[in-house]
Amino acid sequence: MAANIGNRNGNLSRSLFKFWQKNAQNWVLPIIGLLGFLFLWQILSSIGLIKLPGPINILSEESTRNLLLYPFYDKGGTDKGLFWQTLASFERVAKGYSLAAIVGIGTGILVGTTPVIDKALDPLFQFLRTVPPLAWVPIALAALRQNEPAALFVIFITAVWPILLNTAVGVKQIPQDYRNVSRVLKLSRQKYFFKILIPSALPYIFTGLRISIGLAWLAIIAAEIIMSGIVGIGFFIWNAYTDDRVGEVILALVYIGAVGLILDRTVAWIQTLIVSEEQKQS
Fold first, then answer.
1. What is the C-alpha to C-alpha distance for residues 196 and 190, in angstroms, rounded to an integer?
2. For the segment 89-117, what is each residue's pLDDT rounded down to a tens digit?
């Protein structure tokens, strides 16, 4: 009995050691880089080269420390912890981004398979996609008259273009041999769509989706800064800035960066799963 337990502990120790050897650089180097950045920031702040408070100063502020320790507090209205502020922004992004994905992929496939529509709409798409997210905010507010629908529109109009254009490119890049084979085998439109078009265009579609999730997150932050009186991380940042609470602004930026990183990695992970499945089927 004791020997079996010892063997199990030994195997576990060897497994952990092998895991550490394999992944040490993936963890240690980023941590060293982060600590180096924080150290440099603290030094520059201490000697006055930058006017922002250093990490130690930020953590020593009572209001910032309370936000860090109590992210789930809710006193009603817009007086909420950073978790609820971030969650409200994330919910808006999820709605606007989902709509952008549906419209972008559908329109991209239509444009990619219909040259006439492509030529007719491409100048309009290229024109609209260059408009910055902030420029859409007053238009959205004037047209929709409410903050929430206007914010969703800003997310949608910002995120839809990379998805649409990348999908269209992916459809256009389908090899002619694939098209010829579909004609020889007399594949139905449904089989051609699911067996050839979608698998061939998937890498391009996911490229658009990954670009768009970052743009959607940027757009909602910009929109919420302009739109007053709503729960959201963007409005929280602007409100803290106007009250000269710079430490809270920096803490909110940490939340924004963390969520943006998670969203990007999530889309990349989903892409890996789907591409792997496609490879198994082929």
1. 10
2. 888 889 999 999 999 999 988 888 888 88
Planar angle of CA 183, 187, 190, nearest 5 degrees: 130
Give the 3-state secondary structure of residue 105: helix
Which H or E run contains 130? none
Backbone angles phi, psi at 76, to 5 degrees: 90, 155
Report residue 160 as tokens.
């839809």
Per residue in 129-175, pLDDT (tens digit) is 888 888 888 888 888 888 888 888 888 999 999 999 999 888 888 76
Write down the residue that tokens 């109590």 correspond to. Answer: 70
Please name the amino acid found at residue 211.
I
**Structure tokens that stand for 258 in this block:** 């963390």
Q: Which of these, 225, 121, 197, 199, lies nearest to 164 by C-alpha position?
A: 121
Question: DSSP assignment, residue 54?
Answer: P
C-alpha count within 13 angstroms, C-beta hemisphere, residue 190: 0
Strands, DSSP E only, in 155-243?
none
Helix axes 147-172, 198-226, angle to 10 degrees: 150
